[in-house]
Amino acid sequence: MMTLRACLSLLLIAIVLPASASLRQAPEPELRDLLQQTVAEAESFQDRFDAEVWLVDMSARLKRYVPDPVERLSLLRLVHQEASKAGLSPELVLALIHAESHFDRFAISSVGAQGMMQVMPFWKAELGRPQDNLTDNATNLRYGCTILSYYLKRENGDISRALARYNGSLGQTRYPSKVIGFWQDFWYVKP
Fold first, then answer.
1. Cα 174 from Cα 190, distance rounded (Å)
2. Is 131 within the bounds of a domain?
3. Other beta carbons less than 10 A from residue 112's beta carbon
4. pLDDT by residue (tens digit) across 75-114?
5. Does residue 191 or residue 21 have the better pLDDT?
6. Which residue range(s) make up the domain with 180?
């Protein structure tokens, strides 16, 4: 009988390695080491197994948008950490990023919002932190997750209204529907 760890290892090989790789081949040591390091540094997970499962699952989903495995795993660790710190679902944050920037850290909207979570630069002045770089993923995620968490609390947990506030479109449903659609159709993880 196969252990849970062996099943997870096979899943990792099947998802992370290219489709042409045979299950008889050992995973690339560099990629295996990278995943182990990422899991070890992921403080926001309850345990190592949860980190491995979530990172492998989300990495496979994110691969088409962020092809580099080092960048992808680093981003996923940051998303999970900042979302968890702000009391948000990491998958909801991934859906918001998907809708806002398609994971382009250098995205700039027509109204000047910057980075993956499309944070408005006026927030830097409001916080007295003009030196902050909103195209830095850690900074952008910290700002964006904090803002979304605030709006979610302000709207008493109403995700649709919180997303509309985040987008500056309160009273309209197009943007919240888009994010919730990405969340349900692409990023959602059943408990």
1. 25
2. yes
3. 12
4. 999 999 999 999 999 999 999 999 999 999 999 999 999 9
5. 191
6. 28-187
